[in-house]
Amino acid sequence: MNKAKRWDWILLIILFSYFMILLDNSIIFTGTVKIAQDLSLNQQTLSWVSSAYSLTFGGFLLLGGRAGDLFGRRRVFEVGLVIFGLGSLLVGAAINAPMIIAARAFQGVGSAILAPTTLAILMDTYTGPARVRAIAYYGAMAGIGASVSLVIGGVFASLLTWRAGFFINVPISIWMFYLSRRHLVADAGQSGQLDWFGTLTSLIGMSALVYSIVGTWAQLPAFVIAVLFLAVFIYQEKRSDAPIMPLRLFTDRERIGAYLGRFLYLGAMLGFWFITPQLMQNQLGFSALMAGVAFFPLTIVNFIVALQVARLTAKWGNGGLLVMGIGLTLVGMFWMSRFTPATGYWLGIALPMVVIGLGQGLALSPFTAAGVAHTQGADAGAASGVVNVMHQIGGSVGLSILVTTQSLFKSQVIGFQHALLVGTGLLLIALLAAIFLIMPGERQHQ
User: Fold this and answer.
1) What is the pLDDT of residue 30?
2) Are residues 51 and 99 in the same domain?
3) Which DSSP category does 335 fall into?
4) Do 304 and 236 fall within a single domain?
5) What's the burial of 98, exposed, middle or buried (CB within 10 Å: 0-12/13-18/19+)?
6) Is 207 exposed, middle or buried (0-12, 13-18, 19+ CB in 10 A)?
7) In terms of Cα–Cα distance, which of 83, 80, 79, 99 is closest to 91?
């Protein structure tokens, strides 16, 4: 098998594995009603089905990224597949609240290992134009996967069972494991030791931070714990000879802008993905399936545009493409914030979604590229971990902000309008980060 062909298989492994993570992050949005009915869950308990996953996903991300650096990408990737596949099986087979919450937490650990490791494998495998193209596909998957997951979740919840959305991960995980044994190079990792104190403080700090956002009680004490432990973690990383998150990652202007921008961008988008299907079901009378299908204008445009990102990057540069993508997303979200039931689906939702799809297709890949820009092999896993931390934490923060904003208003439509205006504000700050941090940082290295 020639090299190009082998790399095609590697890209397939990376993208399918990443899609699995995205599927289970978004499928909950359209399956929550059925899950609550089947397992007799109240609203507070139901929130933990999602929160347990977010908690361990966010908490273990830095550990997952660094583990691949030290113990070998393929070995750690395969461990993540086993954990994620087994967790998916247990979620699908859950018969009560404790079982599904524990299974979702276990599944989140697998996601925390897979997400940074897949990106690090990509960085190790591809160079030059091939890397630009591979990162473009990886970044595009972040948007396409989340949108398609809403459709898949609606199909399973309406026509089959919500459990099918988790059971389907089991054969996919087995197939990915087989392909990894066949096509991924067995690397030995790097010499060095895992910073156990840094690992412990980051785990507690990140988990507490996620809980302070998605938890249902004692959020303020959790936030205080998060600040204290993350402060200790940063001090530990500064003095450690083998840090789990090298602080030199934050000395590059382009990467700082990418981390900040991704945090804000995903905050706006995850909130949008969460509240828009509910609006369509409650205000336009859509079923869960139709609410998922209604995202096709965004998904299709996103997919088409994402395929052109590698070519457009060569023409306009990563930073220029990113500014254009964020700007279009901002315009589309502001347009949708004007929605009223009288405008209907096509004018009030579908057409703005086309603009958002254009922007999302142009933005997510450059965000990924900027987040791992100029990193050496030794830092690839750690940088990938930070990219995914900003993705996960930013999404959780933005979701919390937009949902809270919507809940301040008795009318769902008015709440939706104000929530999307807040999302537009987050996108504006992300745009400023791209203009004043990412673009100048990119020029410094040209």
Assistant:
1) 66
2) yes
3) H
4) no
5) exposed
6) buried
7) 99
Total number of domains constituting the chain: 2
Q: Give every CB contact of residue 92 below 8 A, 6+ residues apart in sequence.
A: 163, 164, 165, 166, 167, 170
Alpha helices by DSSP H, listed for 72-186, are 73-92, 97-125, 128-159, 164-167, 169-183
Helices (H), 193-308: 196-214, 219-239, 253-283, 288-293, 296-306
Question: Does one domain contain both 170 and 226?
Answer: no
Q: Let me know whether 209 and 187 are in one domain.
A: no
**pLDDT single digits (tens) 380-406:** 778 888 888 898 888 888 888 898 899
Report the predicted TM-score, pTM, of the whole model to 2 decimal places.
0.85
Q: Would you say residue 58 lies in a domain?
A: yes
pLDDT single digits (tens) 40-60: 887 677 778 877 888 888 888
- The answer on 250 and 234 residing in a single domain is no
CA-CA-CA-CA torsion sign (170, 171, 176, 181): positive
- Regarding whether 376 and 361 lie in a shared domain, the answer is yes
Contact 415, 409 (CB under 8 A): yes
Length of the chain: 446
C-alpha to C-alpha distance for 14 and 125, rounded to whole angstroms: 11
End-to-end CA distance of the chain: 36
Cα 330 to Cα 363: distance, rounded to the nearest angstrom? 11
What's the Rg (C-alpha) of the chain?
20
395 is written with which tokens? 């999404």
**Residue 4 pLDDT exceeds 60:** no
> What is the C-alpha separation between 291 and 279, in angstroms, rounded?
9
- Please say whether the beta carbons of 242 and 194 come within 8 A: yes
| Residue range of the domain that includes 398 | 3-194+242-441
Q: Record the tokens describing residue 172, joined without a space.
A: 């996919």
Decide if 61 contacts 80 (C-beta within 8 A).
no
